[in-house]
Amino acid sequence: MAKAAQIVNTYADCNDISTNPNDDDFFPGDETYDSKWGVTERGACGKGTRIFMFKDLKTFQAAYKDELDADRKESPNKGHRGKFLLGQDFAVLPDQKPVIRNAIKPGGLLILNCHPDFAPPTGYRKDPALVKGCVLTNYFED
Q1: Stated pTM of the model
Q2: Largest separation between any pair of C-alpha atoms in the chain
Q3: Burial of 77: CB neighbours in 10 Å, binned 0-12, 13-18, 19+
Q4: pLDDT for 17-64, tens place per residue?
Q5: Of 110, 104, 95, 106, whose CA–CA distance to 46 is shortest?
């Protein structure tokens, strides 16, 4: 968690990481990511940025895709922008657009996007993810 927070701190204020679920910075409902998603530890940096550590990147990606596939039955555009920024063994869920823009600069994190109609403009990355139907991209649509 300390290394992930250090990386995130280059994009957003993450000097004071908390792993206490009773902390005011924790979001209600984030515990739903724990078991099915393979999340082993959650942290909150304050100002809405959250970090999720996981054991297996493929499990995390598959759970995200499954959730989006179910949600798109009611809302077809759900997940068109992606949701999580990914590192090798952690995901970041920021709630501020400037954090996302800073994090996806060259050499930074990539956005996990599993929307079937996602097509970034020419010149942006669209690398295959570990789960069929998902990609990793540095394109963020406001």
Answers
A1: 0.90
A2: 44
A3: exposed
A4: 998 888 888 877 777 777 789 899 999 987 789 999 998 999 999 999
A5: 95
